[in-house]
Amino acid sequence: MTSPAAPTRSPGLRLGTIAGAPVYLGRSWFVLAGILVIGAGITLNRLGAISYLVGAAYAVLLLGSVLVHEIAHALAARSRGMQVKEVTADFLGGHTSFVTSSGSPGTSAIV
Known about the structure:
Strand content: 15-25%
Number of strands: 4
Order of helices and strands: EEHHEEH
Distance between the termini: 43 Å
Shape: elongated
Strand order of the largest sheet: 1-2-3-4
Oligomer: single chain
């Protein structure tokens, strides 16, 4: 008798799907966002409460740019016949995971 497979843990909040792969916002991203908001609040304290809004806006814009960058990796991989497993934005930036590896150095360079 086989035991049922343990459920896989989600890497975070699912934002949607691109190129057939799920896009996640990692739990650790919220730590980064908090650091940015508090850092802006302390650094720009002469602006009052608006400094925290500046930090939040910066965190969201940074998230958007990281996701665009990682989605570009996913789309380039798909165009070269690679299967994309997931796209994740987290504390360290982001990463795109692939099911298959590239077959040539040229494909790796493009992706």
